[in-house]
TrEMBL record:
Pfam families linked to this entry: AAA_16, GerE
PROSITE patterns xrefs: HTH_LUXR_1, HTH_LUXR_2, TPR
TPR repeats mapped onto the chain: 720-753
UniProt key word 4Fe-4S: no
Protein's UniProt name: AAA family ATPase
Any one GO cellular component localisation term in the record: cytoplasm
Domain of life of the native organism: Bacteria
GO biological process, one term: regulation of DNA-templated transcription
GO molecular function terms listed in the Swiss-Prot or TrEMBL record: adenylate cyclase activity; ATP binding; DNA binding
Gene3D superfamilies on file: Tetratricopeptide repeat domain, Winged helix-like DNA-binding domain superfamily/Winged helix DNA-binding domain
């Protein structure tokens, strides 16, 4: 039963069309003009036009709307008469006498129109006078926008009138014409003939393509009223809807009726079970109305094939259709039908005839011309799509489903058998497709045989995603026998831990471990891998830890698998257990191994021990690491080396061994690609983001982080890395709300299930946000919680990104002695550890305490040491912040002459009119720091340095030879534009950039002027 669906006209937001909207507005605002908006059905042509017409720059213009109707015999000039009727009561006086020609057609306007001219007997003369009348009437209106939609349905007269107007348009007329290219009478000729751009006019062709995954996610979120759509669901929606906004809206609204937010964890099953929305079924029926028998046979074959297929395959399947063979039979009623009219097609789609006609005959092999003509007809109607490489199929899966659902079940099974008969002779056989078609005809044994062969082939090729999907399909079928179910469950658990998609596997495996008939060793292995899935992919560390502990008990009679489980529990980054607990687990795991144990297992357990030591900053571990990296011969050993490389890259990144981290990252990327583990590749991608942030490679880093978020489909560990980096970048730009949201998503929103080092880093960043906002109580509370977690775990080397801000929060809260004690505890915690990042952070902590105690010389020395150590890693942002702190201490000594000592002009090469040498040096170094911050993208830090210079009477001179920007935005204007685009007020921008609100107001005015905008709400997000 179909649920009631509330209908609303149009999508709630225009998404992914910034460039197209800008182009359309540029045309409308520069008359005389014509814009051709081109795109397939449902692509959003009307939505784009409505958005443009509602834009502030268009609101003062008169707008007239007309639409061409899909009538069998369209009314001549109907769209123009419809739009001119909208002028009732609005016509100006003194109209050109030729306008009287319109009186018979527009009785609503007759009283305001001039008298009807004398009758002309020549048809062409009458037609020309009518065209002149329409043009004169539009010219009398001043600034006017005329919109004619669906020009592909226009009658010849309307097309000719449009051509007349655009070739010699009134001076203040802007025309907007929309159409489907594939439905034009002459493809590519919007007006039925070539358009020549007249001199002195503005014109543009604005083609609309499908939305990308990011835009699909944004639009789906808007349709659901702001309920954020997970990245993996967005990817699935994009695949099923082809990014067509109308199709997407129909699907999401139907999902919402089904309770979308509640079922996001099982989106594939939910989408599979979703009925094709009624409007899409009707659209398919409308598109195929009047198809020839041959075209209908092709459409039915393509629907059963499900995926884009070659012409010869479609033809071979279509040959099983009686109507296909009858198409060339002169006695057949199907062949007697006319293309473009409804005929009697056996088994036709809804609305395509009664299904009667001649008795079916044995199908004959189709000729190339048969298939070609049927495919061509379906392509021209927009039912099938050319995917290139001689492959044809439906534009999106819902169109395929609509066509498939219309087939009677007997016809479906017959066609599926025909597909199997054709595919079985292909070399090599397409195993996945054969398994699918066997399942559809109910042949269970054949389905299992092909499915298992497809899983083996996918694993051999390293395509774990395909293997997992096939196994999930097998385990979802209630017809599966118990022994098959156990075997496939173990296989799924093994491949799922290597992939990114985890939700369906988790649900299936959770149900399987509850099966009381499973042997303990089977249940234990499945539960072990389920625990790994929960910890690594799902981010459910607590539940994953619990399942892994239970698996240890269930695997008591399988020492090698038990050792794997114990080694998994020895990964110290999860949970709040002290370091010693992890050492005990790895010792137990190693105790179960013998010389006869599987080499890959020995490598895995030993690798976890090495990583545990590296994470703790054990200085003696390096030799063993180097020795292990040269091992590994089998595929399973290479997989363990890939995992080891990824874990070492993460550990060394947290410690600040950036050169080693880059080396491990490269090795991990190579090995993960070789063994086909998308999850490992995602883990390394997340580590890479943090590593690049530390190294100061910030260009496009935010974009890369968002791309990783889209790619990993919600896998928590990698997503947390990406969110942390986005939060850190937002802090450097002074975007507190964005930073808070990102840090919450990274770890702070669910600290129990967060990785410990990442949680400490996120807390350290959040303390900075609280302090910047003046929320000192919140900053201190965050610091106390975070320090307590590190203290319980005993992993002080992970506090490098936490301790400097935690100490600063305590100091600024007046708790200097407590801060001093914390620094001493931190120093003891990292003593003897090989953790260069923590060593640099310790000096920054000492500088903060010394400054608070008034020991300025000691503070300067500590900060300068910290800066040097950060720079040696290298970590340029932290080095610059420590250097800035040292310079602030110098300013506070009073020995530099204060404002008098700094007064002057600081240019690129030094202080121009410095009061003394020391003040000149400080001014020069602060200026250089501002430039270093700006080069990184740390705009708030750069602005803070400039503010210190201004407060001390230093004016920063322009760089020698600085370019003139003309109509382009200056760097400062780009900063302002970026903040305006994110919705900041002038006062908020002033706070971020350390400027006065008046200065910000001037910058905003220049931004609007240079971008030719009238309102700050129009500033695009890409203006900077």
């Amino acid at each position: 039963m179909t649920s009631p669906l509330l209908r609303r006209s149009g999508a709630p937001a225009l998404v992914g069309r910034t460039g197209e909207l800008r182009a359309l507005l540029d045309v409308i605002n520069h008359p005389p003009a014509v814009a051709f908006v081109e795109g397939e059905a449902g692509i959003g042509k009307t939505r784009l036009i409505r958005e443009a017409l509602g834009h502030p720059s268009v609101r003062g213009r008169r707008v007239l709307l007309g639409t061409c109707q899909p009538l069998r015999e369209p009314f001549p000039y109907g769209p123009f008469f419809d739009l001119l009727r909208q002028l009732e009561g609005q016509l100006p006086r003194g109209l050109n006498p030729v306008c009287g020609t319109l009186r018979p057609y527009l009785p609503e306007l007759a009283d305001a129109l001039p008298p009807t001219p004398e009758t002309l007997h020549d048809h062409q003369a009458r037609r020309h006078r009518l065209f002149r009348a329409v043009r004169a009437l539009l010219a009398s209106l001043g600034q006017v926008v005329v919109v004619v939609e669906d020009l592909h349905w226009a009658d010849d007269g309307t097309r000719d009138l449009v051509g007349f107007l655009v070739e010699d348009p009134p001076a203040e007329l802007a025309m907007v014409l929309s159409y489907r290219r594939e439905d034009l009478a002459n493809v590519g000729l919007q007006l039925g003939r070539a358009y020549r751009h007249p001199p002195g006019t503005t014109s543009a062709l604005i083609p609309l393509g499908p939305l990308d995954v990011s835009a699909v996610r944004s639009l789906a979120t808007a349709i659901t009223g702001g309920e954020t759509v997970p990245a993996d669901l967005a990817a699935e929606l994009h695949e099923r809807t082809a990014g067509i906004p109308f199709v997407l809206e129909e699907v999401v609204r139907a999902l919402t009726v089904s309770g979308l937010p509640a079922v996001w964890g099982a989106q594939r099953e939910t989408l599979d079970a979703l009925e094709v929305p009624r409007l899409l079924r009707e659209a398919m029926a409308d598109q195929t109305a009047g198809f020839s028998a041959r075209a209908m046979a092709v459409v039915r074959a393509a629907a059963v094939l499900r995926v884009p297929a070659a012409e010869d395959l479609i033809a071979a399947v279509a040959s099983a259709e009686p109507a296909f063979a009858e198409a060339d039979d002169p006695r057949s009623s199907a062949s007697a039908g006319r293309a473009g009219t409804r005929g009697n097609v056996p088994g036709a789609l809804p609305g395509h005839g009664t299904g009667g006609g001649a008795s079916p005959r044995a199908p004959r092999p189709p000729s190339g011309a048969d298939a070609d003509s049927g495919i061509r007809e379906a392509l021209l109607a927009g039912v099938l799509h050319d995917f290139g490489g001689d492959r044809y199929g439906f534009r999106h899966s819902l169109a395929q489903q609509a066509a498939y659902d219309s087939l009677p079940s007997l016809d479906r099974r017959r066609l599926h058998r025909r597909v199997m008969a054709v595919l079985v002779d292909v070399d090599p056989p397409p195993l996945v497709q054969l398994a699918y078609h066997a399942r559809q005809v109910g042949d269970l044994d054949t389905w299992l045989r092909y499915s298992e062969a497809a899983v083996d082939a996918a694993r051999e090729l390293g395509d774990t995603a395909v293997a997992a999907e096939i196994l999930e399909g097998l385990l979802s079928d209630p017809r599966l026998r118990g022994d098959d179910r156990a075997r496939f469950a173990v296989q799924l658990s093994r491949v799922a831990v290597l992939g990114l998609a985890y939700r369906r596997a988790v649900a299936l495996l959770r149900g399987i471990v509850r099966d009381g008939d499973l042997p303990d060793v089977v249940r234990g292995e499945v539960r072990l891998n389920l625990g790994l899935l929960l910890r690594n992919q799902a981010g459910q560390y607590e539940q994953g830890w619990t399942d892994t502990e239970i698996a240890v008990r269930e695997l008591r009679d399988s020492p090698e698998l038990a050792a794997r489980a114990m080694a998994a529990l020895a990964m110290a980054s999860s949970g709040e257990q002290p370091y010693g607990a992890y050492q005990q687990w790895i010792a137990r795991a190693e105790g179960l191994l013998t010389d006869q144990s599987d080499p890959a297992l020995r490598l895995a357990v030993r690798g976890n021990h090495v990583v545990l030591r590296m994470m703790a900053g054990d200085p003696t571990v390096w030799a063993e690491v180097e020795e292990m990296m040269g091992t590994g011969r089998t595929a399973e050993e290479c997989l363990q080396l890939a995992r080891l490389s990824g874990n070492l890259a993460e550990a060394t990144t947290w410690l600040g061994h950036y050169a080693a981290a880059q080396r491990f990252r490269r090795a991990g990327e190579r090995l993960a690609a070789e063994c086909g583990s998308s999850w490992l590749q995602g883990v390394i991608d997340g580590t890479s983001l943090r590593l690049e942030w530390g190294l100061g490679n910030w260009h496009d880093l935010a974009t890369r982080a968002r791309q990783v978020l889209d790619m990993v489909q919600g896998v928590s560990g990698t997503a947390a890395d990406a969110y942390l980096v986005l939060g850190l970048l937002a802090i450097a730009r002074g975007e507190w709300d964005e930073a808070t949201d990102a840090l919450e998503a990274a770890a702070l929103g669910d600290p129990v299930n967060a990785r410990a080092p990442l949680l400490a880093a996120a807390a350290g960043a959040m303390i900075r946000v609280w302090m910047a906002r003046g929320e000192m109580g919140a900053a201190r509370a965050e610091a106390e919680r975070a320090v307590a977690r590190v203290r319980r775990k005993g992993m002080w080397v992970w506090g490098a990104d936490l301790m400097p801000t935690a100490v600063a929060a305590l100091v600024r809260h007046g708790r200097v002695s407590e801060a001093d004690a914390l620094v001493a505890e931190y120093a003891a915690g990292i003593a003897g550890r090989d953790a260069p990042l923590a060593a640099a952070a310790l000096e920054a902590c000492r500088g903060a305490v010394a400054y608070a105690l008034g020991r300025l010389a000691e503070a300067i020395a500590a900060y300068e040491t910290a800066s040097a150590r950060y720079a040696a890693l290298p970590r340029p942002y932290s080095a610059a912040r420590a250097a800035e702190a040292a310079l602030r201490c110098r300013l506070a000594t009073g020995g530099l002459g204060g404002k008098a000592g700094l007064a002057g002009t600081a240019g690129r090469g030094g202080a121009g009119r410095a009061g003394d040498a020391s003040g000149a040096r400080v001014a020069r170094e602060l200026t250089e720091l501002a430039e270093r911050f700006a080069a990184l993208g740390a705009t708030r830090d750069a602005a803070r340095c400039r503010r210190v210079l201004r407060d001390n009477g230093v004016s920063i001179s322009a760089r020698r030879g600085r370019r003139g920007y003309g109509d382009q935005l200056t760097p400062r204007e780009r900063e302002v534009a970026r903040l305006v685009a994110t919705g900041r007020t002038n006062r908020e921008i002033a706070d971020v950039l350390f400027l006065s609100p008046r200065t910000v107001e001037q910058h905003v005015a220049r931004v609007l002027h240079k971008l030719n905008l009238t309102s700050r709400s129009e500033v695009p997000t890409d203006a900077y």
